[in-house]
Amino acid sequence: MHLKTYLNNNNLTQIKFIQSVKEKTGHSIPQGTLAKWILGTRIPRKRDMLNIYICTHKQVEPNDFYLGDPNEL
Fold this sequence. Notes:
The protein contains four helices and no strands. 52% of the residues lie in helices and 0% in strands. It is mainly alpha-helical. The model has no long low-confidence stretch (mean pLDDT 92).
C-alpha cells in the first residue's frame, strides 16, 4: 500500500502522521520530506522505511516506494 493511500484510508493528515511516528519511534520527520515521499519524488532511507513500516502496522512496505501507483497507470 502506498503511503498516500494509507494516510487517506486512516484519515491522517501529514502532521498527525509525523506526530505518530515521533511518539512511536522517537524519530522526527520533516514535513517537507514526508510530502516528497508521498509524491514519490524521494524515497525514504532504510531507517525511515522501517519506521514507516512499523507505524503503519506493516501496511506500507519498503517495496511500495519502488512500485508505481496503480491508480496512475
